[in-house]
Amino acid sequence: MDTNQSLGCRELIVSLEDRSYPIWIGSGLLPRLSALLLERGISNGSPLLLVSDEQVAKHHLATVQQALQEGGYNTVVHIVPSGESSKSLTHYEACMTTAIEAGLDRKSTVLALGGGVVGDLAGFVAATYMRGVKFIQLPTTILAHDSSVGGKVAVNHALAKNMIGAFHQPEAVIFDLETLHTLPIREVRAGLAEMIKHGLIWDEAFSDWCLEHADDLVALDQAKLAYGIYMGCNVKAQVVSKDEREQNLRAILNLGHTIGHALEAVGQYGELLHGEAISIGMVGSAELAVLLGEDSQLVTYTRRILEAFGLPTSIPSHYDTDAILSAMMHDKKFSGGRTTFVIPTAVGQVDIRHDISIELVRSVVDKLKGESA
Amino acid sequence: MDTNQSLGCRELIVSLEDRSYPIWIGSGLLPRLSALLLERGISNGSPLLLVSDEQVAKHHLATVQQALQEGGYNTVVHIVPSGESSKSLTHYEACMTTAIEAGLDRKSTVLALGGGVVGDLAGFVAATYMRGVKFIQLPTTILAHDSSVGGKVAVNHALAKNMIGAFHQPEAVIFDLETLHTLPIREVRAGLAEMIKHGLIWDEAFSDWCLEHADDLVALDQAKLAYGIYMGCNVKAQVVSKDEREQNLRAILNLGHTIGHALEAVGQYGELLHGEAISIGMVGSAELAVLLGEDSQLVTYTRRILEAFGLPTSIPSHYDTDAILSAMMHDKKFSGGRTTFVIPTAVGQVDIRHDISIELVRSVVDKLKGESA
Ligand SMILES: NC(=O)c1ccc[n+]([C@@H]2O[C@H](COP(=O)([O-])OP(=O)(O)OC[C@H]3O[C@@H](n4cnc5c(N)ncnc54)[C@H](O)[C@@H]3O)[C@@H](O)[C@H]2O)c1
Ligand SMILES: NC(=O)c1ccc[n+]([C@@H]2O[C@H](COP(=O)([O-])OP(=O)(O)OC[C@H]3O[C@@H](n4cnc5c(N)ncnc54)[C@H](O)[C@@H]3O)[C@@H](O)[C@H]2O)c1
Ligand SMILES: [Zn+2]
Ligand SMILES: [Zn+2]
């Protein structure tokens, strides 16, 4: 059952025993926020902390505040600057100060209104305020269909991303697709890259569906988006339910990420968005697969679907191959010159290979650069 | 079975399903640390982070380092200043920096060598480094028999103590009683106050045993200490096993703490040690019990046992009653003028009462002050 009649939206239950929770996806959910919180047992007896960023707040804070006020919720708002730099211990401490000053107690709830940055920051606050309080995600980016499922929350350390964090599952993810209308188009496409990834690793039919409806999705057709985000969350939720603490299976979610992370680093985390970088990385994984003996149709298909969404499929020519490889070796351990890679074996299927040599990766990187020369 | 023959020490298993772990208590355990780590599956394949404070390091770091070196462990050491002010986000971040620079990975382990301050700080680092790594406690104070059991880890916020933290169970607590010989005598007595508390809330026979062996315990008789700490940990572990996430039963561990915390605050966290403050608080709880109709022998017994350990039983006369009451109201919610208190009903038994009026507490505070006039 993927719709909740009484709530009038799509519903997906993430099954994690006593930490199971629903993801609600639909248009116009934020104005009904109070009712949805009550549905999850969040009463107005204790103050709430709402964390958001400047861009998101400009467009959507008023709606949320009004909805909370109608429900009689006593809410304190903490706004951080937009962008990755807000995922820091400094902003984390500032959130804590706001929470303490507002008298949040152990029965309070932290709400994240925003993309992955706000979700990760506010989630880590929720995980550790008084040793853990309730947490609700209100995603406003397409990428956040990925980041809001799985319970990973974190801030960055000056020396490395996502180094400081916890696993903390939300009480609910409430995804109002209306908020996406104000999202910059580059962010839309980049977020869709993770949706495509979810098809490529797990579900050929969904992947084909994405390819077929690329234009509608980029144009934010609400019904198509509701289905696509539902399916994307569903793949992630299934993988996470089977491997909550990231022991093994969860690694398949990293398709395209080994090369992708290296490209983000070489571009100083400013040139390429995460989704753009993994788009190129997914082509790289397909190229690797073909070098390892898989059908060359894998590359053709991967390129076709990403291009349909206007996503990049080759490495910018000014990116230095050695710099990319050394960023990758910094990120991943190449022990004995070999490392782990997620490799497609068919559309909707991947394998985790531990024997990928640095030379093979180099030839793929060269290939991906050649295309853009 | 409370001894582990092959390890040659007392052993207590804290039962928490898949997070169960042993507490090993004995003399001369630190020189054998490598063998004990191996016993818990801590291999020397990944670097360790050892956190300690200046005082503790001066006396005991060399022993630990030599033991780890013999086991082939690659260890990075992070030393913080002694005292409560090291339980801060600033020192937490510095620990993280040390860990990242030393290349700690997800299979690494954090060790805490010290009292409750180092245990709480290092434990929070372990709980959140890369979303959680393994943690080992090496307690060096008597109080740490309390703080090292239960999985509560935290740092302080400038506005309030223990506000930022997590629940993170250790892989093992390795309590080498030899380290206690360098502990200042005031700290010895204060730590014993928590041991006495464990008798008073749970086990009359153990309480009587403490009273009988007060002098031996204060003199750090190793066999008596081993038994006392074993029994103290045992009470805490039983309570915690039944209520890991602090839903209800765990509240009984707060005997003496409502008044105690207020006294610490009024003394600006410098005049009274925590154990001294709760010593006075436990007398207060007994006085409250008598006002509520319990036998006055409760007060006599409570005073007698605390005095046998040289612990304070009355409020310093320069502490202002109103200041104490307002600190308490800041700490606890008096809703409708009533609050929750742990009240003894017999030696080894307590009740949680939610109907204690502020007037009743005031009369007890006055009584405790009168004694010191
Ligand atoms: N926790 C996880 O499992 C997980 C998974 C993937 C990514 N992440 C994290 O997510 C982060 C990236 O998330 P993101 O791409 O959502 O970035 P983001 O939160 O920074 O949002 C991207 C930009 O869009 C703006 N924005 C967001 N919603 C908007 C809206 N509706 N209208 C107008 N502007 C809007 C933001 O202000 C920001 O400038 C990274 O920090 C990454 O590490 C976490
Ligand atoms: N996590 C929990 O469940 C829990 C429970 C109770 C208390 N606590 C926390 O524990 C802390 C208090 O612990 P504590 O009383 O052990 O304080 P502590 O760690 O500060 O140690 C007390 C003093 O003794 C010194 N010291 C410690 N061991 C020594 C040794 N063997 N030789 C010489 N000097 C030594 C320390 O340097 C310090 O100056 C507080 O922060 C409190 O919040 C936590
Ligand atoms: Zn990603
Ligand atoms: Zn205490």
Automatic annotation (TrEMBL), chains A, B:
Belongs to the sugar phosphate cyclases superfamily. Dehydroquinate synthase family. The keyword Protein biosynthesis does not apply. Binds 1 divalent metal cation per subunit. Can use either Co(2+) or Zn(2+). NAD(+) binds at residues 82-87, 116-120, 140-141, 152, 161, 179-182. The keyword Metal-binding applies. InterPro entries: Dehydroquinate_synthase, DHQ_synth_AroB, DHQ_synth_fam, DHQS/DOIS_N, DHQS_C. Keywords: Amino-acid biosynthesis, Aromatic amino acid biosynthesis, Cobalt, Cytoplasm, Lyase, Metal-binding, NAD, Nucleotide-binding, Zinc. Catalyzes the conversion of 3-deoxy-D-arabino-heptulosonate 7-phosphate (DAHP) to dehydroquinate (DHQ). It is an enzyme of class 4 (lyase). The lineage of its organism: Bacteria, Bacillati, Bacillota, Bacilli, Bacillales. Zn(2+) binds at E194, H257, H274. This is 3-dehydroquinate synthase. Residues 79-189 form the 3-dehydroquinate synthase N-terminal domain. Its EC number is 4.2.3.4.
